[in-house]
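Q: How would the structure tokens look for this protein?
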Amino acid sequence: MLQMVRLQDLKNAQGADVALPPGDAPVAAQALGSVKQIGASDAFVKFSGIQKTYDGETLVVKNLNLDITRGEFLTMLGPSGSGKTTTLMMLAGFEVPTQGSILLEGRSIGGMPPHKRNIGMVFQNYALFPHMTVEENLAFPLKVRKFEKPEIEVRIKRALDMVRLDAQSKRRPGQLSGGQQQRVALARALVFEPKLVLMDEPLGALDKQLREEMQLEIKHIHENLGITVVYVTHDQSEALTMSDRIAVFNDGVIQQIAAPAELYERPQNPFVAQFVGENNRLHGKVIALNGTTCSVELPGVDSVQALAVNVDTVGQTTVLSLRPERVKLNPTPGSLPNIYSARIAEVIYLGDHVRARMAVCGRDDFVVKLTNSEGTAHIEAGAEVTVGWRTEDCRALGAS
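A: Here is the predicted structure in token form.
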């Protein structure tokens, strides 16, 4: 959930920390202030040559170079231990880079303590003050920063309107539902106006339905206010839903950074293809190259026609990436360049679609995703079928 920083962090910040209990997200633009627009080529945040090691040995972040534009919603996506949270903590000031520089609005923030960076934080385990009402929770970060009472009242009203909690303003957190507490935490983050808001797995504690609702809530607030958000998650669906761009981390390195559709449709390496969305991976060898396409030999299959993404040598090993929803069941003979015999091993009914696990092209874990329509009603385990796909939907990626 959206969360606030620990009370000890507040004490360490001597009352002026980014660590406002629920996080210090900005209420920028039209809601609680205006955001100065800069050109798309200007980096609001700039990581240059950043490295981070622990114990002088463990290299957690490796030569990171990343520009973030003002008003952007950038998500750092990756598995545990990939370096994404460490990168976020270096930006916040809770970790110090071993090498490299971080610029905020063109100024180095190296050596600057967290409470001087004017950055908001939203942590994984939110912790609203239980003895305070909603209003008092929202007032806390403003009082810490010495806002006058009339301004505090105006900002609280705006924040409550934004998250639709006017009627709950006198209640304490224990009297609210989980979703309402989430909104209070978000409002408390937005009632203060830092230059940037950082969110570390803020929705991890919510159930699926509420998490999806809050994803849209945060996305809409970002769109309406124009705030700059750097968001960390390991949930690829969450990243695809909310982000302007996604930076996929693995082993301390950004594997690819792109808009959600670009990342899903055109992954540049096997890790990104596997981590972002569901993916069939077929291991083979390039046997011919023809401009932008190639022929790949697979076990038990003479050749597969694929898009040559980053393979350029005959004999090179490759991983073919193919999304399950791009595979056609029983296509008309000759209608596709890639058509193969398959045997259905398992059928799973999932309401709006059916997943069929198949044995094909030397694999027994090949997945086909079929829209649940009249045409899929007869699909049964053990059936012999054919499957096919277009050349451009099958991406030949470097095996490493």
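The chain has a mean pLDDT of 85.

The CA atoms of residues 163 and 269 lie 40 Å apart.

Upvote if useful.
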